[in-house]
Amino acid sequence: MSELIELRGITKTFNPGQPSQLTVLKGVDLSISDGQFLSIVGASGSGKSTLMNIIGLLDRPTTGTYYLEGTDVLSSTDNELAAFRSTQIGFVFQNFNLISRIDALRNVELPMMYARVDPKTRREYASHLLELVGMGERQHHLPNELSGGQKQRVAIARALANRPSLILADEPTGALDTATGRMIMDLFLTLNEEHRTTIALITHNPELAEETQRVVTMRDGEITEVPACA
Description:
alpha/beta; 6-stranded mixed beta sheet; 4-stranded antiparallel beta sheet; 7 helices
């Protein structure tokens, strides 16, 4: 597999030069291969959220290099980073982040609208994605008419809208009951196994992490690697 993401020597220091200076990431090296499903685990304060924000191009590191599909993204302008986020990375959040006043179909269409995809094409593809995640019959329902698991399925469809290189899922089962969380994890596994979707799962749940191909553990701003499962 080719390397989709290459992080080398990533550090992140907040309030540099001030009495409150805090270094959260301490020289992180991490590669993510195309088509891989990995999990990033760690206690609160370990640095995994900061690492996630850097992988997702929501924040810049203090030092280090970040290559995404061979492009040095850290040399990009803020507008260019926004374009990378829009087209290369799909986000799935714990609390879904759906827009309450529009239906599931329109929520999935939104990333394509911002990417200036024409209305007919984006509507057809949004409908296809909702079918893919088992929400075809609910596409005209508002978020408040959906269960937590259904909302997360819509959020996953939205994350896939611009055919991103990477899905970054931040505690996607954290707000769900055990059975519904199991359903969402099964959907991620299907997307990875059948569609070769690259997924980075940030989770506190060690049982879910063990189902992924790689487990990266954050501790005190550094990473340790658990051997890939068979």
